[in-house]
Design a protein that fits this description.
By secondary structure, this protein is of the alpha/beta class. 38% of the residues lie in helices and 14% in strands. It binds zinc ion (ZN).
Length: 355
């Protein structure tokens, strides 16, 4: 049986390699036990590439960290709202991550390529080059100039999440809460609406993961592109603010869009817990639910590798074949597995991008 290559909706590998206290100095080109993605493990796991996120953490001097903001409640947790970050700081930080992706491409000697068109993505999946999509997780990374999107598009940006889980000039992200509805705050600002139109004009994919529900509906009404959440799960199974309600899933389906299933245990488990002892079956459970709701053409993967705790049985990117085996065992045939693994991403990106 031919190996099925997986193209993946979300990783935080750039940040993980970039920050000394996260990546601990590991190299993308050497096999490590640290983090989730490096080239040798990617090869082992049949990783065909994915969205490489440029995520800007809150600066140390604003005092907010996910850990320090966490309060455990009787039935879950609340993470207090992250403050907005300064757009000039955000742009500087994002520029460093963009440079690091192009540096990886250069150093890889042709093993990794930043892709800008659906044809380039498909040819990478055929010939085994790891395909990287330059993605911004939070539009504050554009900086304070709203015209900056076009310049970054020229550089290679092809996907933009309007927000991470905090507010910015364009929209408000969901704070991490369990259990919680994703309806946590106001919708898009005027600048946010303008940015959606600009993304449509340029053919930049808009990522709805991390956006609150009112913002989601604003984009659903405005955007002409298929609706996409790169790394979110089913709220009906795991009621965290980061997951999608049935109504949201229906809107994604009706737009011809898709959802990338997130492997983060906290977004998989019914109890929202953070244990790596979460069975592979929890991923299969969400895949089943989403396929039922969206159809087999509306679901892919959005691992959150290098940004989240994932089930031990997956472990890191080299564990992707174990997930495919579990899905095969569960009854997904080869045609369905290929759709989940990369064909759906190819289709949605072709419908969204200009080339
Ligand atoms: Zn994320």
């Amino acid at each position: 049986m031919d190996e099925i290559r997986v193209f993946d909706g979300h990783n935080d590998t750039l940040l993980n390699l970039h920050l000394p206290d996260r990546g601990e100095g590991r190299s993308f080109f050497e096999r490590s036990e640290l983090g989730h993605i490096d080239l040798p493990r990617a090869r082992e796991g049949g990783f065909g590439g994915g969205f490489f996120a440029c995520y800007v953490p809150n600066p140390e001097d604003d005092g907010w960290t996910e850990e320090s903001a966490l309060t455990i409640t009787d039935d879950g947790y609340v993470v207090s709202d992250a403050p907005a970050v300064d757009p000039t700081y955000a742009r500087d930080f994002a520029d460093g991550l963009v440079a690091s992706l192009f540096h990886l491409e250069e150093e890889s000697g042709g093993e990794l390529a930043v892709v800008r068109t659906a044809d380039e993505l498909e040819s990478c999946l055929r010939d085994g080059t790891v395909a990287a999509i330059l993605h911004f997780e939070g539009a504050e990374g554009l900086g304070s100039d709203p015209e900056a999107l076009e310049g970054l598009y020229e550089v290679g940006l092809r996907s933009l999440g309007l927000v991470w889980s905090r507010p910015n000039a364009y929209a408000s992200g969901v704070p991490f809460r369990f259990p919680s509805s994703p309806d946590t705050g106001p919708g898009l600002t005027g600048a946010g609406e303008e940015l959606v139109r600009e993304c449509n004009r340029l053919g930049v994919m808009i990522d709805l993961s991390h956006l609150n529900e009112r913002g989601f509906w604003d984009v659903a009404e405005l955007s002409e592109a298929p609706l996409v959440a790169t790394h979110s799960n089913a709220h009906a199974l795991c009621p965290t603010s980061r997951n999608l309600t049935d109504r949201q899933l229906d809107a994604i389906r009706d737009s011809g869009g898709m959802v990338g299933v997130n492997f983060a245990v906290g977004f998989l488990r019914e109890d929202g817990g953070e244990s790596e002892d979460t069975p592979l079956g929890a991923v299969v459970w969400h895949v089943d639910y989403l396929v039922e709701r969206l159809g087999i053409d509306g679901v892919g993967f959005g691992s959150d590798f290098d940004g989240a705790k994932v089930p031990k049985k997956i472990g890191d990117v080299s564990g992707l074949p174990a997930l495919l085996a579990a899905l095969r065992e569960h009854g997904y045939d080869e045609a369905a597995l290929k759709k989940l693994a990369h064909e759906n991403w190819g289709r949605v990106l072709r419908a969204t991008w200009r080339g």
